[in-house]
Design brief:
This protein is an all-alpha fold. The protein folds into two domains: about 15-95, no CATH class; about 95-135, no CATH class. It contains six helices and no strands. The protein has helices at about 15-45, 50-60, 65-70, 75-90, 105-110, 120-125. Helix 1 packs antiparallel against helix 4. The chain is globular, with a radius of gyration of 18 Å. The relative contact order is 0.18. The structure holds zinc ion (ZN). Zinc ion binds next to helix 6.
């Protein structure tokens, strides 16, 4: 992750409560995907095993190993992006462009809460002009 500290303070620093709302949105979206997975799993095993609590526990335990195979590509990508965004919130790097270090505009974050790049760098990334991996 290139964290060049040439950030120009031209973009307003998003307020803490705005991040709080974004964090909740990310967590809700993550839970939605995870619940969908658990329901699939439960439906698939219902005839063989009616101990639903156990199945949910097992789903949690097998999280990394099985979850990624059960999700569609889109769900998997979204989930990874959400996990990354939540981790960046923990690290305090959330809301800063992973390429140029500028603050990502809060309107962009509201549209795409897991955005890693500012709008300019996102354009470069989509053209394949960024060194940073664009996931
Ligand atoms: Zn940027």
């Amino acid at each position: 992750m290139a964290r060049t500290e040439k950030a120009k303070p031209t973009v307003e620093e998003p307020q803490h409560d705005q991040y709080q709302a974004l964090r909740e949105r990310l967590q809700n979206q993550r839970n939605e995907i995870l619940n969908m997975y658990k329901q699939d799993l439960r439906a698939g095993q219902e005839s063989a095993d009616d101990g639903t609590e156990d199945i949910v526990d097992r789903a949690n335990n097998a999280y990394n190993r099985e979850l990624m195979f059960s999700l569609s590509d889109t769900e998997r990508t979204t989930l990874l992006q959400i996990e990354n965004a939540l981790r960046r919130m923990e690290e305090g790097s959330y809301g800063r462009c992973a390429n140029c270090g500028q603050n990502i505009h809060v309107l962009r974050l509201e549209a795409v809460p897991w955005a890693r790049f500012c709008i300019d760098c996102q354009e470069l990334a989509e053209k394949g002009l960024l060194e940073v991996e664009a996931s």
